Amino acid sequence: MPDPLVVLTAWLLACVFAVAAAVKLRDPLGTRRTLGDFGLPNPRLLARVLPATEATTALLLVVDPRVGGQCAVALLVAFTTLIVGRLMAGHRNACGCFGTWSKHPLSWRDLARNGILVALGVLAALG
């Protein structure tokens, strides 16, 4: 039987990824614009692939927390690396991590949030 803390952690992280995916899917044009403003290539394609990847990660976290946790950590590390690069280059555009809900300028708080989410993903992956 899985550890209840691991299950809770996986479900919490699954909710985060599901909300992020849903908000992006709800406003594909806004998502595409935000991804383009963030300096990412081919925002039209990414506006479709990114929410699908986040939704799949959410599902994996529920079905198999160990695999889902690994996927979540990989995505979060990639997102965090991108945020660090943008901050170091002096860019403060909103990251759009939660679609139109995240309109605040990019800051080091986003890194702290991602650090907590990575820790949750590691806990799920090691569960």
Short key terms for the protein model shown above:
127 residues, mainly alpha, 5 helices
Average pLDDT confidence is: 93
Q: How many strands in all?
A: 0
Backbone shape: globular
Q: Helix content range of the residues, please? A: over 70%
- Main β sheet profile: none
Describe the structure.
There is one protein chain. With 127 residues, the chain is an all-alpha fold. It has one domain (4-126). It contains 5 helices and no strands. The chain has helices at 4-26, 28-37, 43-63, 65-88, 108-126. Helix 2 (28-37) crosses helix 3 and helix 3 packs antiparallel against helix 4. The chain is globular. It starts with a helix and ends with a helix. The model has no long low-confidence stretch (mean pLDDT 93).
How does the SSE layout of this entry go?
Elements: H1 4-26, H2 28-37, H3 43-63, H4 65-88, H5 108-126
Helix pairs in contact: 1-3, 1-4, 1-5, 2-3, 3-4, 4-5
Brief write-up:
The protein contains five helices and no strands. The chain is an all-alpha fold and 127 residues long.
